[in-house]
Amino acid sequence: PVLTHGDAHPPVGQVSRLTARRGHRLRGRRSMSKRKLPAAPEAPEAGRAAGKQRLQLPEEEDVNDVLLHEMLGDGSEAADAEVDRLSGGVDSIEGGIEGLDAEDLLANLEGQQSERASAEIPELPPGDAPSIPELPVGDLPPGIDATALASGGELDLSAVSLSTAQARRLAPMVCENAALSVIKFSQHELPVGELREEDELEWDSEEYTDVEAILIAEFLKHSTKLTRLDLARNQISDEGAIALATALCANSSIEYLNLESNNLSGTAGSAFCKAVEDNSSLQYLNIMYNALPTTAQQMLRDSWSKSRSNIGLHL
Fold this sequence. Notes:
By secondary structure, the protein is an alpha/beta fold. The protein contains eleven helices and eight strands.
């Protein structure tokens, strides 16, 4: 059907409803336009690339603390306690190091080493000095007459191979011979008369062995004049040193004994522990450049210091 001009317009009620719907839509659009957009991120600081930004941490918190908190749980009491413990330990170490210079650190290290060494080596209790061992005494060598040893000013042993045990048998016999002045060996002589007459003897580098040391020790037991005896750089070992230590227990005049650069070991060191306790006149004992172990050296120091200062003992 053909519409007239009046029919082209909708009724008044229908127009009011359409107008209301359009107004609601417009208000909705206006409200959307008034909403704030999310704030744009701030520009990075000057000198720092935007692509290299890192997690910003509070100034008072260290990265290690953050990692520890992440491992143990953020905000946990265990994490806080562990951080405080580690921080306190580092601060104490740094404070101790800052308070010391290089010399103090070296002295502290030497002191700790000395304390460890003292702890490893027990001190010798009073009265526990090792006793001097008694060594076996042999027979006189063939061809040597005991009666002939009691007289004569010279004893020729150049053709005799004398052992230390035989020397211990021979020594008291020749010492009783007041006329004896020299004992001859194949390579050298031992002027025993000087042991009775001199107060100082420098028998350094004479190639003396344990046999000669045993004979010297026997004369030293009875000497009241000899004060200085130098036997450095010879070939004396423990048996000769034991004889000399035994002589020191009976001697009251010797003040100086040098046995440097011989062949002494811990057995000799133990023997001298007893000797220096029994002898009151000895003020100088040199056993340097031998083979005394550390334990024997410490025992000898303890025995020496019981009645003397540390001066005079050389190990």
